[in-house]
């Protein structure tokens, strides 16, 4: 089989062939194509094979899946709605659980609540102050050791990767296909 | 879609509260039906997505079967493609056709499978039997079925000689009636690259066809 890049004429003949197969060859160009095929018998053989393949493919029907394909596929779909509701319920329960100790404190130590609130306020203030100091020192640390930032980014990447793997694992496993 | 791949959206009749009282039925166009089911599927409605599966199961399965040449693998790949689509509906851009997006997911997944298959050096020396559904597609007598079976085997044999990206372009072109522009967009390449792949694929298949005695 010849390579079409061997000369410009062959390129043009192949371009005509492609247009003809796509049904886009102008009537006038059919004469050019036929003349070229007469001049190149080996191209004529290739052209006939191309046409045969084209006809074969255009005649080939689309394959049908099994009759119950849709039902089985639906059965494998992850249940996002239920999962969302379940996650929401878990968060609400966790929030409510967090309020219970406060209610307990209020019930038993109502008189001392003000003292506790003041102490809590002071502790919170101290913690925030410490957090601010920590951030300042952390910034200074990153400036001195930029490689630490790289390590941090790698850790974040690893967490994202594994969360992706987790999500994939949460999808229902494949059932055995029956064709 | 009205291509050979057999897509057919069922006609849905929707009763809206206003018209339900008068008993009138509001019919939706195909595009509206699709948008309607997509909207519900986005909210996790499996039944709505099921309607889309019903509508697109044949083109998606056909894409997988033509790429993989194995009915069982094709079915699993088609199922996986639908699951991926369902879990990624948020990333679907409604300005593009849903069918194109589905076929893109399916063909890319099949290419991944083919590469894995090649990576483990799995070779199938004997031609795979044609899909049973294709055997009864045309013709009723045993002779006609034998012809269909023979042609089907030839089609798959020719497809199997092609590299994955050529095969993808050929399947999209012949079975899904996509234009060069649409195929290029789906395969994230240029129109000239698609034309080039189809040209090379046709030449390669013609050469193989001649060796196999195509006429």
Question: Topology, pairings included?
Answer:
The complex is a heterodimer of chains A (179) and B (215).
Chain A lengths: L7 H14 L5 H13 L1 H19 L9 H8 L3 H29 L4 H32 L1 H25 L9
Helix pairs in contact in A: 1-2, 2-3, 6-7
Chain B lengths: L12 E2 L2 H6 L3 E2 L2 H13 L3 H23 L2 H17 L10 H22 L12 H4 L6 H19 L3 H12 L4 H7 L4 H22 L3
Antiparallel strand pairs in B: 1-2
Helix pairs in contact in B: 2-3, 3-4, 3-5, 3-8, 4-5, 5-8, 8-10, 9-10
What does this structure look like?
The complex is a heterodimer of chains A (179) and B (215). The radius of gyration of chain A is 37 Å and the shape is elongated. Chain A is built from 7 helices and no strands. The two termini of chain A are 40 Å apart. In chain A, helix 1 crosses helix 2 (27-39), helix 2 crosses helix 3 and helix 6 (113-144) crosses helix 7. Chain A is mostly helical and 179 residues long. Chain A has helices at 8-21, 27-39, 41-59, 69-76, 80-108, 113-144, 146-170. In chain B, strands 1-2 form a two-stranded antiparallel sheet. In chain B, helix 2 crosses helix 3, helix 3 crosses helix 5 and helix 3 packs across helix 8. Mean pLDDT of chain B is 82; it is low at 9-25. The longest helix of chain B is centred in the N-terminal third of the chain and has 23 residues, at 46-68. Chain B has 10 helices and 2 strands. At the A-B interface, helix 1, helix 3, helix 4 and helix 5 of A face helix 3, helix 4, helix 6, helix 7 and helix 8 of B.
């Amino acid at each position: 089989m010849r390579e079409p890049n061997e000369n410009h004429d062959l390129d043009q003949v192949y371009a005509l062939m492609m247009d003809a197969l796509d049904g886009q060859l102008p009537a006038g160009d059919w004469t050019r194509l036929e003349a070229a095929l007469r001049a190149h018998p080996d191209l004529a053989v290739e052209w006939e094979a191309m046409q045969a393949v084209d006809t074969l493919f255009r005649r080939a029907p689309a394959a049908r899946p099994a009759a119950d394909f849709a039902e089985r596929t639906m059965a494998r779909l992850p249940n996002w709605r239920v999962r969302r509701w379940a996650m929401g319920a878990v968060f609400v329960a966790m929030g409510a659980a967090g309020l219970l100790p406060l209610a307990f404190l209020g019930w038993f130590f109502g008189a001392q609540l003000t003292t506790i609130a003041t102490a809590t306020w002071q502790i919170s203030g101290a913690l925030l102050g410490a957090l601010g100091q920590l951030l300042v020192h952390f910034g200074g640390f990153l400036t001195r050791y930029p490689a630490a930032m790289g390590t941090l980014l790698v850790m974040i990447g690893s967490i994202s990767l594994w969360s992706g793997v987790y999500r994939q694992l949460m999808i229902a496993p494949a059932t055995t296909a029956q064709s | 879609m009205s291509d050979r791949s057999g897509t057919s959206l069922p006609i849905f009749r929707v009763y809206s509260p206003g018209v339900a009282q008068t008993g009138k039925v509001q019919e939706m166009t195909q595009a509206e039906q699709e948008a309607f089911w997509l909207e519900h599927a986005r909210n996790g409605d499996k039944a709505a997505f099921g309607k889309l599966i019903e509508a697109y199961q044949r083109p998606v399965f056909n894409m997988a079967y033509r790429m993989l040449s194995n009915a069982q693998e094709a079915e699993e790949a088609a199922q996986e493609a639908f699951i991926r689509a369902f879990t990624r509906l948020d990333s679907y851009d409604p300005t593009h056709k849903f069918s194109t997006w589905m076929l893109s997911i399916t063909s890319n997944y099949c290419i991944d499978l083919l590469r894995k298959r090649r990576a483990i050096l799995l070779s199938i020396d004997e031609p795979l039997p044609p899909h049973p559904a294709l055997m009864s597609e045309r013709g009723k007598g045993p002779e006609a079925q034998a012809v269909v079976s023979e042609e089907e085997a030839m089609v798959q044999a020719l497809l199997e000689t092609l590299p994955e990206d050529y095969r993808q372009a050929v399947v999209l072109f012949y079975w899904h009636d996509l234009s060069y522009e649409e195929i290029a967009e789906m395969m994230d390449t240029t129109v000239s690259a698609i034309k080039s792949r189809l040209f090379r694929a046709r030449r390669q298949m013609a050469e193989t066809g001649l060796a196999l005695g195509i006429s």
